[in-house]
Structures are given as structure tokens and as C-alpha cells.
Amino acid sequence: MERTLVTGARGMLGRVLVEELSDHCAVTCVDVGDFDITDETLCMEALSAAAPDIVINCAGYTDVDGAESHPQQAHAVNGTGAGNIARAAAAVGARLLHVSTEYVFDGSKDAPYEVDDPTGPLNVYGASKLAGEQAVMTSGAEWTIVRTAWLYGHGGRNFVETILRVAQERGWLEVVDDQRGAPTCAKDLAVVLRELAEKRSSGIVHATNSGQTTWFGFAQAIVAAAGLTDVRVSPVATEGFPRPAVRPRNSVLSLARLREILGWEPRPWLPAVEEYIAER
Question: Which CATH number fits domain 3-156+185-209+252-266: 3.40.50.2000, 3.40.50.2300, 3.30.230.70, 3.40.50.720?
């Protein structure tokens, strides 16, 4: 079995990925407290000790709004840290799968984003993740960059849990209805990452659940699946819900490249959300 090292292994995606991989390969789990990915020497030492065949980098600074007031921290983890992991992978001869985001795009396109579309992040988080992509590409490692979007899962802060909490506290919600994307279940993304690793894919791949909706549509589905029939969900424009970080209006990623590699695409977003809520 190939030895796989997962960074960010105790995060929302990392946890379910480790579970997905455990029956297929020998897994080494590392996270904050094991080593600091912003320290290149420590990264080299950790990967040398583990001697992995594959590295899957799920580590990241994921607070989109927080990145606006902490840009140095976001770039240190998402940019410098990604480069450190990638160069360490190259040094030990490991293949790298690096998780990135749709926020590297500006959202102005009318159609789903293809893997080779021009990037242009609107916020610090997106800029830091783009810096990480560029560091990976120039690291000398054999790499695959997997961009995803609107991720949710058990054991982490996410939109689904926020909607359920606020719905139960207030009984009503106002949610943005002019930003589109594909809600993505961490469990489904973990399966994709495992198969991409097994198929020794390379280059940039987009991976989300299939289909698309708005944040408002997503919230409606969450409330309905939870049986909160008395909760009122109202649509609002982006301008009526200001946030520190500007969000792209279009976050939909094309799955064409993923279908080419795997021969299939993840299930539609709605049944994935319904299953997630049923499992809570």
C-alpha cells in the first residue's frame, strides 16, 4: 500500500479524508501542533520522517472574512505554507494533491469556471490561496491542485451548521440570493481526492458536488431537510448583507476535467445536504 500523509488531518475535510483513506493505504496524520507548515525546515523534517508516497494538503487558513484583517497570517499558511509542503514533497519524491478554492476567480464569468480560466481573486483569502497554487506549481513536485467550493462537513464551522443554529435561535433568516455555487459535502470530496490520488492525476482539477444554487437556495434546502417548517427564509441582495470580504457572484466550477479523469462526477448537491442533515 502507498504511504499517504494528510496535512490538516483534524480539520473538517481532513478528518473524513483520513477515514476514507484508511481502508486503502497507510495514512500518516499531521495537523497544527504536530508541525508548523509555515516553517520550511520543520516541513522537510516531518516529510522526511514519514517518507510518504503521496501528500494530500488539506491544511489552510479558512476564515474568509478574518483574512481581511489578518492578511499576513492567511498568506503565511495558504501561500508560504503550501509552498513549503510542496517543496518538501518534491524533496522526498512524493506526489502532492493540494486543496484550493473557487475564490481564486473573480466571479464575473456567466458560465462555470474551467480549470484554465484566468484567475483574479477579489479578497485576501482568494489571493492567499492563489499564491499557494503558484508556489505548488513551481515547487518541483509532481502535483495536482484540486479546487472546490462551498464546503461543509461534520466537525467544523460551515454554512449548514450556521443556518441551522440561526434558524433555531431566531426563527427567520435573510440569505444572499445573487451569488451562485455548488455546495460540496466533505465526504464526497474525500472520495474524489482518494480516486485522484489512485489515478495519479496531474494538473488542476475542479471538484464539487454537481448542480448549482444560490446561498438562499442552499439555506432553503437546509431548513427543509431539517424539518424546520416554521422558519421563514427570505432572499436579499449582496449589497444588503455586507461582509468584510467581497464574494464572487459566480462560484460554479466546471466538472469537465474531473469527468475526464474519473469517468464520473459527484452526486447532486441536494441529496448530499439531505444526507448530511439526516446523519447529524
Answer: 3.40.50.720
